[in-house]
Amino acid sequence: MNRFSIALAGLIVGATSASAADMSDYAPFTAPSEPTIWTGFYAGVTLGGAHSDGQAERGYYTGEPLTTDVGNGLFPGDIDGDEWGVIGGVQVGYNHQFGNFVAGAEADFSFTDLNVLNKYQRIDPSPAFPYTGTDTRTSYSTDIENLGTVRARFGYASGPTLAYVSGGLAYGKVKNQFNLDLTFPLLNGAQYPRDLGGIGRWSNEDWSAGYAIGGGVEHKFTEAFSLKAELFYVDLEDTKIKVTDPVFPGNQIDYHFDNDLVIGRVGLNYAF
Question: Which residues form the Outer membrane protein beta-barrel domain (predicted)?
Answer without folding.
Answer: 17-239
